[in-house]
Amino acid sequence: MTVSPRPPRVLLLTSSPLDGADGSDVALARDVLGALPDMDFLWFCQWPARRGPPPPPVGRAIRLWSPDGSPHAQVRLQAALAGAVAARRADLVHAFVTIGRAFPAFSWLRPLMLGARPVVHTVPGVTDARLLARTRPLGTTVALSESMARRLRAANFGDVRVIPPMIRLSEWPFLPPPGGVPTVLFAGRLDPQGGAAIAVEAAAEAARSGALFRLVLALRGRPGQNTTALREELRELAGAGGLTDVEVRGYVDDLRALLASVHVLLFPPPVVGGTADIPLMVLRALATGRPAILSDLPQFADFGDAVLRAPAGDARRTGQQLAWLLEQPRVWDMLAERGRATVEESFGPERFAAQYGALYRELLT
């Protein structure tokens, strides 16, 4: 009787539970978990369980004490310690960790924490480029864009691959524009360089030029932030700019319904640091047929002519782009179609699964 070999065991190392807060690292890990059914995955879940995203139906869960599913300091510490133990039972470790302030120390402790097994490190983003000089690669590094790959190679990260994030097209269908007064959406973090203030100033510039629209700000905070005060500052900035129809919201549970209600995504951060190098919100907007106006940052070059771009940090030029787009229905239609086609061609699940599957097989051989 022939005994079938067991499937390779892969630890998905994230800073918070996969059924917790919807950060870019968690979203990428969940996508890998669903894309490679032939692997035996170990992943973190929150305890005690709460209402939120359903836990992944495959693999084996490792419980972390996390009342709200967010990556607080104590949760990140638990994840590091539990990951060090679970790594001893894994054939491969796949880390999804942004390079932030604590990462250089973790990278130097990698042999102690993760042992000698192969490691894949998917880098959602880099909060500060200066950290790269103090960081060692964990193993084979995966960047989300060619731009980030060049930065990591220049910082001596060695073997750097590029695997863009994915969108499940069936979950984000192409939608016709809603009726009524156009709605402009900014969705992002309440970070100083997150782009929310520039989005408000750009919207004020568009309104001064005669554009009619309502502005929705969907703003997520981070642990330790005074989100109430930060949102109030943005309301005051909008009022000072003459904007009268502004809605400031917090975390949005139903992003599909939100995108169905808007006409344009405005995402003009001066830098992309605290969020994914290719923001998943931009991909979701393009998939549903919502034209996007982005900062002219290197990583956004991958979108080609499927988006409009304005100089990073230039609220005046961004506002002019917004006013022009709202007055050009034919351009809106063209960008909506191009955005969907770009997502289908470059960010589909089949390509994502094939690239990660090939990388896993290479490292597990």
Write the layout of secondary structure elements.
Blueprint: E1 9-13, H1 24-35, E2 40-47, E3 60-65, H2 73-86, E4 92-96, H3 103-108, H4 110-114, E5 119-123, E6 140-143, H5 146-154, E7 160-162, E8 183-189, H6 196-208, E9 214-220, H7 227-240, E10 246-249, H8 255-260, E11 264-267, H9 280-287, E12 292-295, E13 308-310, H10 315-326, H11 329-346, H12 349-364
Parallel strand pairs: 1-2, 1-4, 2-3, 4-5, 5-6, 6-7, 8-9, 8-11, 9-10, 11-12, 12-13
Short summary:
The protein is of the alpha/beta class and 365 residues long.
Write out key terms for the chains shown:
2 domains, 6-stranded parallel sheet, Rossmann fold, 7-stranded parallel sheet, 12 helices, alpha/beta
Describe this structure in words.
The chain is of the alpha/beta class and 365 residues long. It folds into 2 domains: 9-165 and 348-364, Glycogen Phosphorylase B (Rossmann fold); 183-346, Glycogen Phosphorylase B (Rossmann fold), CATH 3.40.50.2000. It contains 12 helices and 13 strands. Strands 3-2-1-4-5-6-7 form a 7-stranded parallel β-sheet, with helices on both faces. Helix 6 (196-208) crosses helix 10 and helix 9 packs across helix 11 (329-346). It is globular. 44% of the residues are buried. The mean pLDDT is 92.
